[in-house]
Amino acid sequence: MTQVILTNTFIYPGEIAAKCLACPVRFAGICAALSSDELNEVGLKTTRRKFTAGTPIFFEGDDVLIHGNIVTGVVHLSKGLSDGRQQIVALQFSPTHLPVKTARVTAQAATDSEICAIPNSLLNEIVGSNAKVEETIYKQTLDEVDETRHRMRSIGRKTAFEKIANLILMFVLKGDPGAGNGYRFELPLTRSEIADFLGLTVETVSRKLTKLRATKIIRIDSGRSVTLNSLSRLHDVSGC
Amino acid sequence: MTQVILTNTFIYPGEIAAKCLACPVRFAGICAALSSDELNEVGLKTTRRKFTAGTPIFFEGDDVLIHGNIVTGVVHLSKGLSDGRQQIVALQFSPTHLPVKTARVTAQAATDSEICAIPNSLLNEIVGSNAKVEETIYKQTLDEVDETRHRMRSIGRKTAFEKIANLILMFVLKGDPGAGNGYRFELPLTRSEIADFLGLTVETVSRKLTKLRATKIIRIDSGRSVTLNSLSRLHDVSGC
DNA sequence: CGAATTTTTGACTTCCATCAAGTGTAGTGG
DNA sequence: CCACTACACTTGATGGAAGTCAAAAATTCG
User: Fold this and answer.
1) Separation between the CA of B191 and the C1’ of C3 (whole angstroms)
2) The predicted structure's pLDDT at residue B235
3) Fewest CB within a 10 Å sphere: which of B39, B77, B135, B167?
4) pTM of the model
């Protein structure tokens, strides 16, 4: 990955916007489907926006974003409920796309995040001329459906313990696909948000995390900081 | 798993307009986005296929379907589990589209169904020349995501009773949007399938249906035949 | 009709939500 | 630095909802 970026740096010196060259998601999502000319144009017109944890991400106005690449961080999508509470319906990890247009959801930074925002008008323009981009977006949406359905089953059938184990596994794998034992990371969600996401209560989340710690599969260093002791055992208890 | 297509009614050139004009889904899904010329072409090349309840619907081979309009009936989409069992992940009602391409799911006729099958090649051709069709398909997929997320919440937070009530409500509304009290219909799913769909057990489904009958909100005439007594009360207990 | 399947009902158990109290852990301001 | 508040998290006790096991009743179908 890194080598490829360096090679491109050599081939197109100064032509591709610097921020794109160094971008972790340069070869992910729609950016991977862009020609270098298109990437140049995109690089000029996109804005890199930073959001601190807990900040809502708005997309409004005429030039509303319909697509953002999550450069760093974790974003959660939630739906408001009639009783005023919210339900987290999806988590989006870096490096990946943020298909905000997909549903009437609120996107909120779960951790400090950076998002590369592509204006609606620009994306439409590109989509019209580059079928590959359109295809990519469509495929991502299909994956989204599949993912959501998969998690639906997870919520319906698994025990609280399995749900928690599974979520931790998800954090590990999405956070660093090559992560193994000894991997240390921060939980991107509060206990309350985890509960929301999994359809549990805070108390149950806390209890099951304690149980997971008691089995020595993970170590909870402090409130949010977790160390993975056994990836294989984590996988075993996650009910997949 | 063996017999797929029970009846395959081909309709001939020249009669197309009649076929499509009389079609219940003429103004739904992608058909609504077609010009009359395109509709004629589609009419020529689509096949109306009938599936009896319980029959799996396969789309394979070179000319694999990627889009079918459900003309009549109810189709369920399921995912196979590692233990050999299946999980129903979505229900598709007539008149609507059957976006089979959306995920690696098995589509199976829940009730006797008729599906208007559009060959892959033809759809690709239309999509290439008619942006509105592409947009329609994309929008339908987005709706699919939204719907799935909505149901995910439903599975995670609602009581068994609310889930059942909600499903009955869904059957009523999707079966006949104008249906009111006294409306009689057949449950398109077995208790076991309902359990699968809602993340419950057969016993619980049976108990909650009995409870729903005890409240006089519905009447269960025989195993699958149900009469709606009070739409408003059904809505009240469905937890929406 | 009789066999097989689906559905209902009952008794018991388990898991998780609820209610309640206690323990950190920041963050603010005196 | 401490006192104060606010918030996030943990732990315990209890009850209820739904799962499990088991068997009867109803429906379907050959």
Assistant:
1) 21
2) 95
3) B135
4) 0.86
